[in-house]
Records
---
Amino acid sequence: MTGTLTRVEKINPFMSFLNFFKGVAVDFVRGDFFVKLSALIMGAGYFRRKQIVKGFLVTLFQIVIILFAVFFAAHYIDRLPTLGTVRFETVFNPETMRNEVSDFDHSFQILLYGISSIVVLLAAFFMYLRNISNVRALQVKAEKGEHISSFIEDVKSAGDKRFHVTLLTLPCLGVIAFTIIPLIIMISVAFTSYDQFNMPPASLFTWVGLDNFRTLFGDDMGSTFGYAFGRVLTWTLIWAFAATFSNFFLGIFLASFINNSKTKLKKLWRTIFVVTIAVPQFVSLLVVRNFFAQTGIVNFFASEVGLTEFLINIGMVPSHLTYIPFLSHPMWARTMIILINIWIGVPFTMLIATGVLMNIPKDLYESARIDGASPFKQFIYITMPYMMFVTAPFLVTQVIHNINNFNVIFLLTQDVFRTTDLNLSQANAREVDLLVTWLFRLTQEQWNYRMASTIGIMVFVVCAVITLIAFNTIINRNKEDKFQL
């Protein structure tokens, strides 16, 4: 029973968090005078154990954090609840006879520096608590008569026994500075009024609570964001699954065809498809966009052979057009985007599938042939289950990748597609937009950062839900021993 509880605590972050504070409290109570003094002067415990250099560095760190908190962090954290109250103004100074800018508040700077300061202070607080446990450990070593390492020995240990800590320190700091803090700020913007009408430094923005989410999920006060969000989300999910599984199954089929013993010039076929991958994607997409443009080569040939007229006659192309709207009509554009993505993505999937197919035990196929299984049954009962078993994580990541696949949608439709839906247009969305391209244009064209951040949160929620469902229903059901001989 004890072992079970220990394992639960190890995998429960909340319990680990509580145990950390409990351990610090116990170390403080059981510690000697210098351990308790370390709660006031962080280096006291090190000075007592003759670790002078470490004590000096820790005390210096404490002084720097105190100065940072008093002279920098307090200024911005104090203004976080309001995000500033003093507006930007130019005031005439009779002494200098010039217009001078007032000492105004910058809402985004307050948000940025305030949140960054809180993260830094929380990290410093964690190190402060950890320091108490460290000096308590030194006290226990001293009482047992064990050797207490010098500063030089600690430096050598950082490159030897504790090298993993040294190696991970810089990446962890990078994650905090360039991932965690920007993510917190992005999430925070979704709860503010930061948009084109509240743009610092000319004006201030403030906290609005859940108003942006109410706007996104409804049509309150004439807003069309609720209407646009439902349609863009639906198309995003359709696109993500269509793009992922079309490439997946066609890639497997192509790899199986090339790997077939009856196929000639296998190396030539593989080389041709690998060359298509070598061309940068944005180049391919821009070239293809020109091919399928109103005056592109595809429309020229379609007109010459009478295909355009035929499609107009059967109602697939509006009668007022003289060309096929490959990338300018909602139905045509969505279909072409999926087809073009197949052309771009299948070779990559083919290479992955080729590697997996080469590792399928040949004995399985030989046994199946002896039992009279046809090539189709071998594909259904051996190839596909094995492929699904090996590539399930890849499929999950590909779905998430396609939800955020900015390049294909943006490069094929930007400056080409024009929405005819007034409600979508008012929300600055289009029928072919994914959530990520809608978010991008909200920021770059409308400077509507509050709604863009709200949509960004929803993108994360959608990706998280799909990932959790996929890993719990697909991957966990795979039976590894089923494919082991």
Note: The radius of gyration is 31 Å.
---
Amino acid sequence: MGVLNVTPDSFFDGGRFASAGQAQVRVRELIAEGADIIDIGGESSRPGATSVSAAEQLDRVEPAIREAVAAGARISIDTTRAEVAERALGLGAQAVNDVSCLADPGLARVAARAGAVLVLMHTRGELGSMAGFSEYPSDAYHDVVQDVLDEWKQARDRAVLQGMPRDRILFDPGLGFAKNGSHSLELLSRLSDFRCLEVPIVVGPSRKSFISRVDPSPPERRLGGTIASCLVAVRRGASVLRVHDVQTVRQALLVARSIEALPAAISQLDGEAEVGGTREERAARA
């Protein structure tokens, strides 16, 4: 899932793709880099960000959505507002990415009516009042995995009450949202514990501040930590990775999978050799 923030104030790429022309070019770049889904958002969810009206969000995202639809891309709309989601789905988006943990149940109604996928990300409280730089009390969770699981299930159940099918709701643990660096690292370490939900797991570690708790660095120097987090997340069950650096992360995943597949391939060849002799002998018999 390639990130496209059509905003002036997102924490990493704010302002880079704020104009319609810049956003449309970036859509084509993300597709070329291998993005399976383009996640388009018109409101920053960084700590302390100012709320943006539905009308302004739509002004920002519509050119990018239209470009992505024309290119045949799969699109998710990153919004917490039902009216923005409804318009985006009407334009051709297929998923709603809600980073508010369903603060507005109307979002689920809209997604259900459209037959869309709903990504529910865990968080607590209002996004605008969230502390930044992974600042969150260490004792805010009794057990961060179990508490996130329980609270997310409550949001999922609210969505189901609005008509959203359970099998079209995806889980995102919300790294960095109402969590400190240790919380986010533990969620990644124990990500496989969420397989009990039996739904696809979405993870968004890209350039986030929990990485700087391990290696102090600004967002523009967190690519290594992003790649490491993505590799761990996939090993522990993630189905979708939400990242800014699509080509680089995709390359890392492809190489890791190729390396991991080698022992099995070698074992298979060894087995064939034992049963059927050398390659030349098998060819001669054929």
Note: The first helix runs from residue 20 to 33.
